[in-house]
Every structure is written in C-alpha cells, then in structure tokens.
Amino acid sequence: MSDKTEHTPKRNLRIGIISLYGWLKLWDNYGTLLQNFALQTYLQQRGHTTFWIRTRSTQVVQNKRERITSELIRHLRILVRFLLTPILGRPYSKRLATFNKRNPRHFEEFIRRHTPTTLQEFSMEELVDNPPVVDALIVGSDQVWRDVTKINFLGFGPREVRRIAYAVSAPWPVLDESWLQDASQFTPQLNAVSVREAEGLAVCKKLEIEDAVHVIDPVLLLKEEHYLSLIRNDGEDRNYRNSFILGYFVNIRAINQIPWQSIVGFANTGGYELKVVPMQGAELVIPEKHVFTPSPSAWLNAFHKADFVVTNSYHGALFAIIMKKPFIVFLQSGVKAPENCRFTSALEPLGLGDRILARDSWQKITASELALQMSRPIDWDRVDLALTKWRRFSTKFLGEALET
Hints:
The strands form 2 sheets. This protein has a 6-stranded parallel sheet. Strands 8-7-9-10-11 form a 5-stranded parallel sheet, sandwiched between helices. By secondary structure, the protein is α/β, with parallel strands linked by helices. It has 17 helices and 11 strands. It has helices at residues 3-6, 21-26, 30-45, 64-88, 92-102, 107-114, 124-129, 177-183, 199-206, 224-233, 260-270, 296-305, 314-322, 341-347, 359-362, 367-375, 380-402; strands spanning 14-18, 49-52, 136-139, 162-168, 192-195, 213-214, 244-250, 273-279, 308-311, 327-330, 356-357.
C-alpha cells in the first residue's frame, strides 16, 4: 500500500500550523523552515488545506509606569552602545546583520513559493481576539515548547477546533516546575500530543498526558524523492566541479567549538573541497573562503551532491540521512547542551547512534581519526526499514489525531 493511501482522511480539513515564524524572521534557519514545509506538504498530499500562522513577539505594556521604564531602558541601551562601540567595535548583532544582508539566502522567496501563510502577522492578543478560521490547529515542531505562551500551546480559537501537538520539541532536561505549572493551564485542551524527543514523554507524564507518543521530525515525513523534485522545480539541481565535504554549523561563537583543524585536515588529505553553511553566529567564525550561503533549495541540493556531511545541527543530521550521506555529528556544549537529546532520540532508533561524537571525543579527534570514523559503513537498508516503520507510526498518530 502506498504512503498516500495509508491514512486517507474522512474529510478534508482547514489546518493552521504554529511553529517558530517570529523566531525565523530573526534567524534564518533551514531546519525551522523545512520542517514547516514538510508538515504542510504531507498534509496537503492527503487533501487538507494548510497554512503557517504568521506570529510575532509582542510585549504588552500595562501601565504608564511600565511604559516609562521601558523607554528609559531603551534609551540607556542606545547610550551604552554609543559609548562602547569605539572601544569594543561594532556590536556582534550588527556584524551578523551586515553579513546576512550581504549574503541573502532567499528564505522569503521560498516561503512565498512553497509554504502557504496567513496574510496577517498576528500578535498573541490578535490571535486570541480574532483567530484565523480553521478546523484544526497543529503546533510543531522545532523547540516550540521552550516557552509557554497562548500561541505555542494553542490557547486561542473556538473550543470545537481540534488541537494537536505534533513532534513538539523543547530542552526537556532543564524545564523547571514553573514551566510545568504554566504548561498545565493549556495541556487539558490538547486533543493529541506527540513529542520529537523521547525525553519529552516523561515531561508529558508530569503534565498528566499519559498517551503522548514519540514521533519523527516533520522533515522525515517526506522521502528523498520529494526533496529532489523540489530541487529540480526550483532550478537548483546543479552539479559541483569538485567533490566536497559539506559542513553545516549553528550556534558557535569560536572556532574551537567544533574540531575545525581536523575537519580541514580530513578534507585536504582526501582531496575534497570544504563548503560550510554557517548559521546563527557561525557566519562570523568560519573562514570566509569556506563559507557558502545557499537558498533553501540549493541547501538541499548541497546535501544531495556532497560526499560527506559534518554538522552540529539536528536537521543537518536528518538531511544527511534523507540523502543517504556518510555524516558525523558534533554535539553542542554550554547552554545548548540540554538540546543534545534530540540527536540521540532521532539517531539511535535508526541504528545511527555511532555517528554522534560528544565534546570530549571530538575535541581530541585527529584528521585521520575523523576520516576513519566517517568511513564506517552505514547499512542504509536497515535505516530505511527502521525509518519506514517509524514514519508509519507517526503518520498514523497524525491521521487519527485529525479525525473528529
């Protein structure tokens, strides 16, 4: 039986999707964009009408004293920047904004072509007062439950609307009692809950969600051929002159946060070009001659055409799997360490846990050791078998959750 007929809906629904649109406006992120694209595409293939509910972060000022305080803080920040810039140089965020302006990734164009959105960009108050008309709401997936708000816990819209959490993600190990108390206000109205990381199941139990399940990330709902078709349709099916190693790195402020010299040595020894897509701060760290800033479809094509992938990104690992490329993941450290559970939750069920290197391992790895680690064979037939089974489980959850 084909995937398209496995979960035929009883009726076609109008579905609004909440994911990190406001955050994506601040930080281009291929994974955040493509997980929404994939979820919408999967649902559209099953006859539903879908759209991304565009949201923005707003701060409600309740009284005159708060308005005065807010303005005072704003002016003080401007003064501090003015005084310190000659000493410390341009602020980090300004340098990053300058880089991104000079190296556009064309996310907005991709969204216009491939991910339907609401015309309006909603504040929290506007969503509560005048929500879009839908039959169902889905929140998911990338770190959407990091914070508790009426937006990301679907605390808006008529009571009869179906509310589903699909593959919701959070830094589960560090969520505290305050988070649990806030979340418990909203979870009773959710009709079905699934999490992206297995660690989220224990948190759901604390919230008295006993039937939560562990599902795949939305990008894995689609198969390789869906992405290859997208690449071709967008005119990005280009070949590269040289064999290359693709690096995709996020959230680094210093080059020692990845085993850079070993990566370069691995590339040089094997005669590979090294092309690196840097995001969320890595733009100012990776040496310019290696930097590559593709559009989303060109980014997918780079995964398809690469010989190897090195990354510290969750979605970097997933697209290496989708495109069946040998890959290594370098776990993040510091404040990002609690998010590392996403790697084990996704890779271990697929038999790929040995592709993950913790910081104490990758810090001392040599170029030859990295090459040896990368050369370890991957049984892609076994991976496909495990992924097919997990995909069927996940789509069954989604199909049943949407039925009324």
